[in-house]
Amino acid sequence: MDSDADEVRATLVRNGYNTAVEKIRATEYPQLQDITYLDHAGTTLYASSLVQKVADDLVSNLYGNPHSQSPSSQLTSKRIKDIRLRVLQLFNVSPADYDIVFCTNATAGMKLVLEAYTAQVGAFQYCYHKDCHTSAVGIRELSGDTKCFLRDEEVEQWLEGGSTTDEVESKTRGLFVYPAQSNLSGRRLPQSWARKVRNSGRKFYTLLDAAALVTTAPLDLALMEPDFTVVSFYKMFGYPDLGALIVRKSSPGMLEFLENRRYFGGGTVAAVTSQGDAFHAKRSGVPHEHLEDGTLSFHSIIALDIAMTVHKDLYGDFSRISRHATSLVMHLQQQLAKLEHYNGRRVCTLYSESFPSTTDESTVDEWLRHQGPTVAFNMRREDGAWVGYSEVEKLAAVKRIHIRTGGLCNPGGVESYIGLNAWEIKQNYEAGHRCWDDQDVMRGKPTGAIRVSLGAMSTIDDVENLISFIDEFYVERERSTLQKELVRGDWGGKATAVVESITIYPIKSCGGYKIPAGITWEIKPHGLAWDREWCLVHLGTGSALNQKQYNKMALIRPSLAMEDGVLTVSCVGSPASINISLASSELDALQSSASRVCGDKINALTYSAPEIIEFFSAAIGVPCTLARFPASLASKRHFKPHLATPQSGDTELCAAKQPPILLSNESPILLINRTSVDHLNEEIKISGGKAAKVDVFRANIVIAETGPKRIAYSEDTWKHLQIGKEFIKLLGPCRRCHMICIDQQTAIQDEEPYVTLSKTRRIGGRVLFGQHAMHLPVKSRLSRPGIKVGDLVRVLGFEPKTLESGD
Ligand SMILES: *Cc1c(COP(=O)(O)O)cnc(C)c1O
Questions:
Q1: C-beta of 105 in contact with ligand 1 (< 6 A)
Q2: Which residue among 182, 206, 279, 583 is the one 20 to 30 A from 461 at the CA level?
Q3: Highest averaged pLDDT of the listed ranges 139-153, 486-500, 618-632
Q4: The pLDDT of residue 483
């Protein structure tokens, strides 16, 4: 084993792995302790000494706003002049031919170019490569003719076609945009296109999106000669958050072209009047003087200077970084490609070119030309079905592995690599899929991908951690004896159980309130009385907060005093408590406001009393307040079968018949079986993990089987239950996420039970535990329906005659 590791290491070192990085990691990146960070294409990370040196510089110098004559202002101006030169030199060009325009990020740089384009007479032609980032694709909305090149050969053909007479005679100039490296797959595109466009005689400028490339590779503008280049510096150094547009000012017609831009702002105008004929004269000269509107991000530009120095001291130049990261990605890709299930089926489908596994110098060079240190992929189960990327991301998060998944801001990449047609994407959108949500597999195809990207400070351990993670959780060693399918058992009418506990969660995502023994609790179509009647909403966004994001919500303890008509809320670790009236007459005093719960737009009634805002804001450390969502408003939200497993048969429930819910995520009632919790805990213990308390599953009803024959997960086969005198319909299994790792007593997050649940209960790509349920109102009832702890539970082999079916 060790000799294997030694061999891997030796190969990596031969390919350019920089072993010094391992020591740098320990001293410079304390924030990476126990974390596997694999999202350098999102942002690379800043070193401690960078932050320290920036702080030292800012406190030992007085920097003023650059547009004036005071010494502090002049100091800023001087620094910025030097830094402009330094950035151009970093990209191997000189101020004789190029100019740097500082802006917020790469996207802002593109929009600045777009402003000049839209100032032309007539609509402009826009051509872009399908590997473009979303920020480049959006340019087409302001253009005339748009063409998307799907393959490199199409670009070459277009270039060989040369200019048309129409084009030469036209006054408007076209724009061609392509990325130096795909942010989805890491593929590096040809470096020759900008020059070829110029030589073709076409009336086009080329904009090179170098944002992904510069993270780990040298950018040689002298070689590529694009007319415009955009970068984001946080992707190179982790800090500062700053971008640039680099203009090749020596390109034909460039200065006049940019001066056509109409807008001016503070700093880009030489003289201006507000009265009379509204005169203004633009500043002229180098492009940055008339393109940098408003005050420059001057502190960030100073930080950039320090970032360049620190980065070079730590890692050497970018070609060193490039070899280091490439050595790692070669290893990663080869390992992922090797993973197989017991039946010989490949686990990973990689969305990048494969390279030979020999590792001589020329192979490494070949990689450097064609591929950056990014791997995009999806995984398949042993039966060939896709593993949902959002399930992978959730489990990775529990294991402290940081990856990115989904559409990755690269529509063309998703379409081409995953093989999704435009109509399928539209159909998925119509079916409710949005960027960011967890509908990761739709109609048998992934809706996005998993992306792993490496950087200057990545190490062998990072890569090995990811490979072992996938190996442990996604490679099937043998036809599994573990339970991977819903249990099939014939329990009709025989299984008996009792209600062990009943819990309501008056405030969504906060602590539960256990119904005391002996009390019969009312049950309604939307669930148990007072369950999820309230929620906490962010004061800024109006969105409902959840415990997954704000773990401390577990510590908020509501309890109901029915005789006093109040909900009393306290918080663990604080002596304070508040009382909220249950009376519906109180509702009038509340303010109706638009809110969002689980993506649904709802109208909630928010509390504006300062003591309420203060109590909850202090309890979880975010500006928030309480909101009420009384039953009378409930009709707008319904059970969401699409969130459960496709096999659960929920689809039988047509939209109109779906039970109403208040603020619960998916269904009126959540029910779990003690036998299943115990079984899961045995499995956790076998792997040495920490057993889960039953409250992490946040069930409303926990039942405990009483018969001698108890089968874990038998609840998955039940359709109808009788609890006491009430009838309950089970709606299908509940899909779980890592929220079940939050200890409800301490709000501390652990790996379990999600890790073991992911291994033992991933069914149809979903991690399932417990059952969604609803109450069935039956005919001719005298009293109000209710259940209590200790009620007998019978599994019914028939569908009870309900009010609706009787009507
Ligand atoms: C990150 C990225 C962008 C967007 O950068 P912003 O900093 O968000 O403007 C654009 N293109 C590519 C290729 C990228 O990787």
A1: yes
A2: 182
A3: 139-153
A4: 44
DSSP string, 253-321: THHHHHHT-----TTSEEEE-SSTT--EEE--SSHHHHH--SS--HHHHHHHHHHHHHHHHHH-SHHHH
Q: Does the beta carbon of 465 lie inside 6 Å of ligand 1?
A: no
Residue type, 271: A
DSSP symbol at 778: B
Q: Ligand 1 pocket check: which of 128, 133, 231, 234 to mutate, most ligand atoms within 8 Å of Cβ?
A: 133
Q: Is the CB of 182 under 6 A from ligand 1?
A: no
Find the range with the poorest average confidence among 104-108, 344-348, 513-517, 763-767: 763-767
Residue 11 has φ and ψ, to the nearest 5°, of -65, -45
Q: Token pair of 262, please?
A: 């109409």
Ligand 1 contacts CB of residue 44 (under 6 A)? no
Percent of the chain as helix, strand, coil, to the nearest 5: 35, 25, 40
* Residue 498, Cβ density class (10 Å: 0-12 exposed, 13-18 middle, ≥19 buried): middle
Give the predicted TM-score (pTM) of the model.
Answer: 0.83
Alpha-carbon distance 270 to 252, whole Å? 25
Domain 57-310, CATH among 3.20.20.70, 3.40.640.10, 3.40.50.1970, 1.10.510.10:
3.40.640.10
The arithmetic mean of pLDDT across residues 737-743, rounded, is: 91
Gap from CA of 211 to ligand 1 centroid (Å):
5
771 by Cβ neighbours in 10 Å (0-12 / 13-18 / 19+) ranks as: buried
Distance from the alpha carbon of residue 135 to the mean position of ligand 1, in angstroms: 7
**pLDDT per position as a tens digit, 177-207:** 999 999 999 999 999 999 999 998 889 999 9
Q: Which protein residue's CA is at the shortest distance from atom 5 of ligand 1? A: 106
Which amino acid residue places its CA nearest to atom 1 of ligand 1? 211
Number of neighbouring beta carbons within 10 Å of residue 470: 22
What pLDDT is attached to residue 649? 33
At 631 the three-state DSSP class reads helix
**Residue 767 and residue 467 in contact, taking contact as beta carbons nearer than 8 Å:** no
Contact 707, 495 (CB under 8 A): yes
CA distances, 166 to each of 119, 169, 173, 181, 206 (Å): 20, 5, 12, 32, 19
Side chain identity at residue 211, one-letter code: A
pLDDT tens digits for 169-178? Answer: 678 899 999 9
Q: Which atom of ligand 1 is nearest to the CA of 179?
A: 13
Q: How far apart are CA 640 and CA 165, in angstroms?
A: 58
- CATH pick for 2-16+319-474 out of 3.30.200.20, 3.90.1150.10, 3.40.50.620, 3.40.190.10: 3.90.1150.10
| Active-site residue set | 409
Per-domain residue ranges for the chain?
A: 2-16+319-474, 57-310, 496-802
Question: Cα of 111 to ligand 1 centre, how many Å?
Answer: 13
- The C-alpha atoms of residue 759 and residue 775 are separated, in whole angstroms, by 32
The reply to whether ligand 1 has any atom less than 6 angstroms from the CB of 403 is no
What integer best gives the mean pLDDT of the chain? Answer: 88
Residue with tokens 């213990």: 685
210 CB near ligand 1 (under 6 Å) = no
- Atom number in ligand 1 closest to CA 41: 15
* Cα separation of the two ends of the chain: 70
